[in-house]
Structures are given as C-alpha cells and as structure tokens.
Design goal:
238 residues, 9 helices, alpha/beta, Rossmann fold, five-stranded mixed sheet, two-stranded antiparallel ribbon, binds zinc ion
Length: 238
C-alpha cells in the first residue's frame, strides 16, 4: 500500500526510525510510504461480504467489516492490542474504509440529515486494562473512522464495569456468557434518540457487541449498527 512521495525531513526520520510492516513487522523501504511489505499485501484476507447480522442477538441491526480475522490483518490487530502499536488503528481504518464506505453513505443532504449515524461509540475496555495498555484500541479505531464520517466520538458514555477475561482465552460456551452484565451506560442523555455506530477491533462470537447494543438500546438509542476491522470466518460461513 503505497501512499505517495516522502518529504525530505520525513525521509531522514525514517532512516533513523525505519518504518515496519504493520502485519509481519519486517523493516520497510525508507523511500516509499508503505504500510505493508509486498508479501503481506499480496495476502490481505479480504472478504466478499461486508454486511452481517449478529449471530449472538438482535440488538445490533447491521455489522460492517472489511477483512477476515486471519493472516496479516490478525497480526496487525494483535500488534495494536498487545505490542504498543497504536498507529495501526488509523492504518487499518484507512485500509477498511474504501471497502465499506458505500454502506455509510446515508441519505443525501437534501433530506433531513446527511449522516447515517449521530455518534460513534467505541466498545470500552476495563479501566485496569486501559491503564496497562495505555489506550483502548477500539477508541483509536472509532476516532479514525468518525473523522471520515464527520461524526463525534463519545468516550466514557459506554463503560465496562466488569474486568472480564479476554474472549480469546475462553472456550466457546464461556465466550457467550463472559460479557453478560459487563457494560453500562453512564450518561444516557448522550445516547437517547441517537443513531449509534458501535466500533470494535474484531468480532469473535458477537456476544460483546450484543451486550453493548442491549444497554445502548435500553438507554434510548434509536438504532445501533457496528463497525469492526475483522470478522472471524466461522461467523459468516455457517
Ligand atoms: Zn509484512
């Protein structure tokens, strides 16, 4: 993924801090603004369907997603969450957006409201985990996406009050029960009457999104859709 010519100052910076492939972490050429090495770029796990229902429940009307949670995308999300690569969030949104933007077009400006959503809400992580990681990856993804959609991001409205174990560490049955009661809307007046776009990094069983959707609807959201960077293949080939 090439992104244009590099100004001289950036060129020198890149000589001292060589850019790395967001997926496999190999060192990239200094003179081209790439995000991926050619091997990873050839193997991006695109999916041909970008709109899903949620198998875990009915609270989310639509889930939008660009990639399969495999290969380089899986690695890039892993680096974002566990290896202190917050910059991967914007790059993954930049890669996703051209594939899903038609779904976010909304109605034309001559009608009431041009935007399809009023507000973007990241799936929260528990404050303890946020302190350890230094950021919430879903918030970074939400900020990048919301900028493109020209809508505000609301952080601290939807909160996680239970520090549940990571979904990836659990067996399938446990994953469905794990997020139950974990989320809470702190400022319902910010949600009431709003069309909400919920944002997360990956959907594994859909149960986390479902729990978030439930409490957002209870708080008065008109509708809740979701955007995630990647979806587990099992979720949509069943
Ligand atoms: Zn690579």
């Amino acid at each position: 993924m090439e992104c244009g010519k590099i100004p001289r100052i950036e060129y020198f910076l890149r000589m001292f801090f060589p850019p790395r492939c967001i997926c496999c972490d190999c060192v990239l050429a200094v003179n081209v603004r790439n995000y991926l090495c050619s091997d990873c770029e050839k193997n991006i796990p695109y999916i041909n369907r970008h709109q899903f229902g949620n198998p875990a429940g009915k609270s989310i009307s639509n889930i939008y997603c660009a990639f399969d949670y495999e290969k380089g995308i899986r690695k890039a999300i892993h680096h974002l969450k566990f290896n202190d690569r917050p910059g991967n969030a914007k790059i993954l949104v930049d890669m996703s957006y051209p594939l899903i933007k038609e779904y976010f077009a909304g109605v034309s400006a001559q009608f009431e409201r041009a935007n399809k959503y009023d507000i973007a809400i990241p799936v929260p992580i528990h404050s303890k985990r946020r302190r350890e990681r230094g950021y919430n990856q879903s918030e970074l993804i939400a900020r990048s996406l919301a900028k493109k959609l020209n809508i505000p991001v609301s952080v601290g409205t939807l909160v996680k009050r239970k520090n549940t174990p990571p979904q990836s560490s659990l067996a399938k049955d446990e994953r469905y029960k794990n997020p139950e009661g974990a989320f809470h809307v702190k400022k319902p007046y910010l949600i009431e009457g709003r069309r909400v776009l919920l944002v997360d990094d990956v959907i594994t069983t859909g149960s986390t999104l479902e729990e978030c959707g439930k409490v957002l609807l209870q708080a008065g959201a008109v509708c809740v859709d979701a955007f995630v960077i990647a979806v587990r293949r099992k979720l949509y080939v069943q």
